[in-house]
Design a protein that fits this description.
Structural class: mainly alpha
CATH superfamily of the largest domain: MFS general substrate transporter like domains
Distance between the termini: 53 Å
Low-confidence stretches: none
CATH topology of the largest domain: Growth Hormone, Chain: A
Number of helices: 16
CATH class of the largest domain: Mainly Alpha
Radius of gyration: 22 Å
CATH architecture of the largest domain: Up-down Bundle
Order of helices and strands: HHHHHHHHHHHHHHHH
Helix content: over 70%
Number of strands: 0
Oligomer: single chain
């Protein structure tokens, strides 16, 4: 059978971006909920799952290898196979005595495979589609990436929770959940083997050798760090989500912990609905409105409102920790407020990363900037669990609010063109 150079994008873009988003949310969020249900301490959960951000921090270091060796299609299929193996590995080691150590090893494999899959999938998207198709399908890819988040944080967590309730065996419930996830990725792999097109431009790069690759690689980093006010820019990237980076690691444990431990004593399926479904929908709506607003009046106009939006709504967790309300509707409203603010405010962050990446090396510099973004999530998350267990949820969430202050201070001084983000119109 001849290889198809082009195939209708509707056949492969939805599944490609479901497969890109799902392992990320499993590594970053579902692992936290699973470990909490399996009685791992908040200190260990926050520390070790924060380390899982590392592949996304350093992925610019090996992205040239994906570009040089083999094809993007090859890397996509290989990484989806590795993700499927790692999901199965998590499932099979959950019943082990040292399950925490073994499952973490497979989560590491999943994290590196997922980060590499991100590089290959985004590169393949640009190679397989022309400029018009890329613009037309960008909303489709983002939508299915969000659906992956809803599925991971919502549907699969609810599924695990229902199994916990029906079987009475938490370990078994999560084992089955990860087997289902592994089977899903094998289906993705088989489907993509037959459906992904073979674009002519998706080929090995014989014009690039190791010497030129190393030279270009070093030049890319050198030019990035030569940017004007780069120290201030990096500080902004690292501290814009300093409070949120700590909150996100303890939000699910807080919802799951019993009342006498300071939590809300929600069930696993309730957390899946509240944080993974209602929260993700609110996040998406906030992100869409943020994008529309910035496109209309520019990032400079909305910047301070977005800084406020991503930080101030964190206060709802102080309210929840003080009241420990049993009103599930109220819990959902609070989470929706916080996640909507996060979605709206995160728009400014992503647009600013695009702004500082402008130039001939835009793609590479954006990858470096997103590496610093991941570092800004990893480092605060590592100590957040220890801090929470030391001072309790109420004072931890107060500390989270204090941690938002650096973002306000640094934002005042960052360089930003007032016209950036405003759509140009003909005079």
């Amino acid at each position: 059978m001849p290889k198809k150079e082009f195939r209708n994008p509707w056949y492969w873009i939805p599944s490609l971006y479901l497969a890109e988003g799902l392992p990320y949310v499993v590594v970053m969020t579902v692992s936290v909920i699973m470990y909490k249900r399996l009685n791992i301490s908040n200190t260990e959960i926050a520390l070790y799952t924060s380390w899982l951000y590392l592949p996304w921090v350093i992925k610019p270091l090996w992205s040239p290898i994906v570009d040089l060796l083999k094809t993007k299609r090859f890397w996509i299929l290989l990484m989806q196979f590795c993700i499927g193996v790692s999901l199965a590995g998590v499932a099979l080691t959950i019943p082990a005595d040292d399950f925490f150590k073994y499952t973490l090893a497979f989560f590491w494999l999943m994290a590196f495979s997922s980060a590499t899959n991100d590089i290959a999938s985004d590169g393949f998207y640009m190679l397989a589609l022309n400029d018009h198709q890329q613009a037309w399908f960008v909303g489709v890819r983002n939508t299915f990436y969000r659906i992956a988040f809803i599925s991971g944080q919502g549907l699969f967590v609810i599924f695990a929770g229902r199994l916990e309730e029906s079987t009475g065996d938490i370990s078994y419930a999560w084992l089955i959940t990860f087997i289902v996830l592994a089977a899903l990725f094998i289906i993705f792999l088989i489907y993509h083997i037959f459906i992904l097109p073979h674009p002519v431009v998706d080929s090995k790069r014989p014009d690039i050798n190791l010497k030129s690759l190393l030279s270009n690689f070093l030049n890319t980093f050198t030019e990035f760090f030569k940017k004007k006010q780069i120290v201030l820019i990096i500080a902004f990237i690292l501290f814009y989500r300093f409070g949120e980076a700590q909150l996100v690691k303890l939000a699910s444990p807080f919802l799951l912990d019993p009342i006498d431990a300071g939590g809300l004593a929600l069930s696993t399926s309730q957390v899946g609905f509240a944080y993974g479904t209602v929260g993700v929908i609110a996040l998406t709506v906030g992100g869409l409105l943020g994008g529309f607003a910035a496109a209309k009046q520019g990032l400079k106009f909305w910047l301070w409102w977005m800084v406020i939006a991503i930080n101030i709504p964190d206060v709802v967790y102080i309210f929840l920790a003080i009241t420990q309300t049993s009103n599930f509707l109220l819990v959902n409203v609070c989470i929706a407020i916080e996640q909507f603010g996060y979605g709206f405010g995160f728009t400014a962050f992503l647009l600013y990363l695009i702004y500082i990446s402008e130039g001939d090396l835009k793609t590479s510099h954006y990858a470096i900037a997103t590496g610093f973004m991941a570092l800004g999530m990893m480092l605060p998350g590592m100590f957040s669990g220890w801090l929470q267990e030391s001072i309790g949820y109420k004072y931890f969430f107060i500390w989270v609010m204090i941690s938002t202050i650096p973002a306000f201070l640094i934002t005042k001084f960052i360089p930003l063109d007032a016209k950036f983000g405003i759509k140009k119109t003909d005079e």
